[in-house]
Specification:
With 323 residues, the chain is an alpha+beta fold. The chain contains nine helices and seven strands, in the order H-H-H-H-H-H-E-H-E-H-E-E-H-E-E-E. Strands 1, 2, 3, 4, 5, 6 and 7 form a seven-stranded mixed sheet that branches.
Length: 323
């Protein structure tokens, strides 16, 4: 939105620039109204409402109010007074002017409010982006420290290398905090492999056709699967080294069903409250326009994610199955 950044600058313009902007907007509106008059139009106000809106959006409240005042003067002087001079001045023209003024003030107020909200959203987005980069930076530094500690503490080089590889795989999840650094279009099998199976090795199995996902679906599913894996590692099948997680998916037309099923771990119970992870999953479901069915059986958590994959390509011959 480069043009919007040029027009909606996050700064208050001075009085001189506000007057200049108001004069330009009113001049253009006056010329447009004069052209409409040549075409037979009689209403004096239509072209001045957009002028007030544009002035308030670009220049803020001061430019908008100046445009309302100048528009009122021009409308009366050029388009209403000549008509009023040929007849007795009644209450109707005054009522029209009052309504025009009130409408202009409302337009300026709404435009200024919109302008303020846009700037606040941009500031919040900058703050979130900065926080995400800071978290990624600290995580990278922490990973370096942990890698050094593992190499110093684990005598077996093969075990140390395997542990470090898993740590690096899990650390990649920090990129999910910033969608701009996240994946573009992706294959579902590779996404499951990178997000769940590689960090947890043989405790995770996966099976299903090779389905393509767009960038938004890939980002949302990666976050959701990572959250489910984290939950399983804390409370479920991946928490004690004995359980397993199976991830199976199938496609029926434009509908993709992904089934996450845990087994062999500790006895689990339904959550008593919705924490951050649950809220994150619900947010991602809304973004990818999907649904989630949860089954909290004692033998292990089970989830079914359903979403539409549109024109994504499936290659039956490239079906994936791992144990």
């Amino acid at each position: 939105m480069r043009w919007r950044r040029l027009l909606l600058r996050q700064e208050q313009i001075g009085t001189g620039r506000a007057i200049a902007l108001a004069l330009i907007c009113v001049a253009v509106a006056t010329l447009a109204r004069a052209a409409m008059g040549l075409a037979g139009a009689l209403l004096p106000f239509p072209t001045f409402f957009p002028a007030e809106l544009i002035a308030a959006l670009i220049g803020g409240p001061l430019a908008g109010l100046l445009t309302v005042a100048l528009s009122l003067l021009v409308v009366w002087s050029l388009f209403m007074a000549p008509v009023a001079a040929t007849a007795l001045l009644g209450a109707e023209p005054l009522g029209d002017l009052a309504l025009f003024t009130l409408s202009g003030l409302v337009i300026v107020w709404l435009a200024s409010l919109h302008r303020q909200l846009v700037f606040e959203l941009e500031e919040n987005e900058k703050a979130r982006s900065t926080l995400a980069r800071e978290i990624q930076h600290r995580s990278a530094n922490l990973l370096l420290v942990m890698t050094s500690l593992v190499r110093q503490s684990v005598p077996d080089p093969a075990v140390a290398t395997a542990l470090i590889d898993r740590m690096r795989t899990v650390a990649k999840s920090d990129d999910l905090l910033d969608p701009s650094r996240g994946p573009g279009p992706a294959r579902l099998a590779q996404l499951v492999e990178d997000t769940v199976r590689r960090p947890y090795g043989t405790h995770v199995s996966m099976a299903g056709p090779d389905v393509g996902l767009d960038a938004a679906q890939a980002h949302g599913l990666r976050l959701m699967l990572h959250e489910m894996a984290t939950n399983a590692a804390k409370y479920g099948a991946l928490s004690d080294g004995h359980g397993r997680v199976s991830i199976d998916w199938r496609r029926d037309g434009d509908t993709l069903n992904i089934v996450w099923r845990e087994s062999g771990g500790p006895t689990v119970a339904p959550p008593t409250r919705n924490g951050f992870g649950s809220k994150l999953i619900q947010t991602m479901l809304q973004e990818i326009k999907g649904t989630l069915v949860s089954d909290y059986v004692a033998s292990g958590y089970a989830y079914t994610i359903t979403l539409r994959v549109g024109d994504s390509i499936e290659h039956p011959a490239d079906s994936i199955a791992t144990e």
